[in-house]
């Protein structure tokens, strides 16, 4: 770990102003510490957001739910409003990492954390993500890697809340050196084919100031399920978030998002289409689940993840039906 | 003296929940040892559950572990390690490191300790520095004022490597043209830090073996003939993964070199073994070395020696003339802290139609990296009666960190194979698995071979009742996607006794009672057990006893390995306490106007005859001592009746320890997830001293066994030789949500072998767990899992293969 300066701004403007080249943002500091300890980053300055006013609120107003980026995963998971109308988000936040980490880790940090690919995380491998020429997971130890969109880089996106927020149609408010902007989460993530060195479109000197989740339509329900090898402290082999909008028994609209499947969260559009206008039952959920994993391109050691995804997609659809208001 | 033995009648046999089966035998007890205790039911402190005396210190953080030791002027060390799996070190440039203003000492390692060595060192081109044979091998170390300084200085050491071809994959390494980890045949001499390998074993390439004579004896009978006689034969191949010890406290020391004495605070399972190895490495008399382990955060077999890190820390302390702290970080711990070798086991068992075994043939190989120790045959050799047994074990060297002893070396692996094959045999015979075991688990007089089936017979009986084994359905008969299964497996372990086990007991005039021994409490609760034994002898409570352990300044203590601590050290404590008691009563008898023989110690009082509880409080009686203190030091005597014959250099008692574990699992056939719902564990380990601590250790053994069965797997990249999961994030250890309902039933097993007749439980508690789980998974699904860990990937693959086979 290198020596660095420590800055604690009290406003968003000051924070953005402090983000000179070589500086990094610190919120909960969970992922940051991992990256520092492994020698993957060497910031000259850390800008600690913990003293910035107003970044840790959860409020339902105007267009829907407004979540500050510094809200911890534990608070998000325990909030009754989130548990009610935004159930997928509460369950995603509540099943990430460990109780200790959830007490410190923030939703902003969860969205922006770097992938957990063990080649990326080891200083012994200079992979594409670190400016190298190859993806070591290809032909390597890839049991936990991507089963979709994995040709360039096979790391899976690590964010549980991204999976849920994408299903809930969230958008991000971002402050930076120029004008503040608003980005739908749908277009926030950057595929490795576009730029393998990053996972999202947050620019230099920018910080997320708010996450806005629209009110779910009436007769809508969401669910999130995670399947790890263990329940305590494990990353998902498969995770799925589903938003179901219903018209009686029928599915009016479905959004199905797969996490831990590809380098960025994957919208399973074929599966969504398969559900549209159908009565949601075990058979249609099964058909949609099959559609969700169609075209998967597993590597040597992770075809089993395709099987697990198929089961988890089906179960999450049925859970979302059960959660419908 | 000790050789003048008197014959004493002792009750032996079993006391179990709901009954007992006991008989009286005569044992020759040395004249200076106290008479045997009666059964636990008649004792007041021993055999009763006591929370550990140091519990409050541990949970409040007040206990001082090695990592907590802070000495004035203490420096912080870091180790420079090889990034290459196989290399020749051409040059080490430490000038930049030495020039750093915060640097206080630099030391380059001259010799590698641990692992195998070339039989003929000349087979390798001479090199100034040890050859690098795995990623993470220590090269040098530096000491600096602060941890941050140490990290900066560490990065300034420049090492030039000539990179050599390497192999980390077990099957690749077996091929004749594989890169050689060692260019010639190897030996692994025993050191204070760990057991050696059988010498003069043939070696072809990386494959050392097969050995047919393990430490427990040569082959028996003629397996070919045995298979000819067999009416039914079962054969399967089993694979187990490399498991790292993953103790919560990593390896580490604080070394304090002073001209008059070297003091080393060490996280170790053997204060005495560390001292002895330091004496050897630094040419110091043992009396000039003091090793201290006040509290210890787990070792599981990996922490007996000083290790390369410890040697480096002592050198740095000597050079800097200051104390040096060197604790491994988690990554170093995974790559260089030792591991349980992998195994591939081809096991074939022949039997008659009535179930009696005619032949057992095990061929096994596995890798402990640059060390030997991959043998897995002891379970197959010792569990069941069979006239023809052949075990052929080989070590396969790979460019990976050296193995170390790990909680019942070879046994969880061996049980995983044997207990599944026995279940397969039962199924083919149309017998219940417990009924088959009743048939074949019988004692044989094989010159002290450690079969101990009377206890297991009772354990199967009471365990199956508690577990309700009768509800077990035919394999794979559940309809839904989540299937439930029940399984059972057995444990076998041995009575290892260390005669280097001594205690001093002191009684002071103010009533203070101290017990002192170099023995260390590695988390298993020996502190509390010693207090109980001394309290029992003196009519006190455990809290009245001050236990001071983990310091080589005290009388010699047994290293904690082989589950031998309690069986070795508690008799020494009782013997010493008994002598103190004798002299105490002699001192106070006159003032009470009685003969010493008429006095007894009970309930915190000195009692005269049957005076109904009147008498003098212990403390008031102590005030009458003629001298300030009474002190006695005593050691462990030989087992009454002697040790098992034919095992030179190893004190193994007659009879062993074991247990039976029952497991209930569910298998989600859509996701491959196995969930352990319930474990009923029935164990025996001699006379229980503290049933609460025993239960804790059995819980721990089961949890470590579940973790081994379902999750743990050291993953190396085959192309770089680098461990990809040297952390607790990707190296998966079971957590709170994976803990099943555990019910422990303890047998009291009286053998009349020592003044406490106690034994150990650490190892037998973890031997059968993975096997019991695998048998339960088979019962749930009808599909046999032959490879550990039983991950969703493997479960789904096995289920898919079975479906395909059925079509």
UniProtKB/TrEMBL annotation, chain A:
Keywords, sorted A to Z: FAD, Flavoprotein
Molecular function per GO: FAD binding; oxidoreductase activity
InterPro entries per record: CO_DH_flav_C, CO_DH_flav_C_dom_sf, Diverse_Substr_Oxidored, FAD-bd_PCMH, FAD-bd_PCMH-like_sf, FAD-bd_PCMH_sub1, FAD-bd_PCMH_sub2, Mopterin_DH_FAD-bd
tRNA processing in keyword set: no
Domain of life: Bacteria
Ranges of residues in domain FAD-binding PCMH-type: 1-218
Pfam families the UniProt entry points to: CO_deh_flav_C, FAD_binding_5
Protein name (Swiss-Prot/TrEMBL): Periplasmic aromatic aldehyde oxidoreductase, FAD binding subunit YagS
Organism of provenance: Chondromyces apiculatus DSM 436
UniProtKB/TrEMBL annotation, chain B:
InterPro entries xref list: Ald_Oxase/Xan_DH_a/b, Ald_Oxase/Xan_DH_a/b_sf, Ald_Oxase/xanthine_DH-like, AldOxase/xan_DH_MoCoBD1, AldOxase/xan_DH_MoCoBD2, AldOxase/xan_DH_Mopterin-bd_sf
Region span, Disordered: 1-36, 178-221
SUPFAM superfamilies: CO dehydrogenase molybdoprotein N-domain-like (SSF54665), Molybdenum cofactor-binding domain (SSF56003)
Domain Aldehyde oxidase/xanthine dehydrogenase a/b hammerhead: 60-165
Any one Gene Ontology molecular-function term assigned to this protein's record: oxidoreductase activity
Keywords: Molybdenum, Oxidoreductase
Protein name: Periplasmic aromatic aldehyde oxidoreductase, molybdenum binding subunit YagR
Species of the source: Chondromyces apiculatus DSM 436
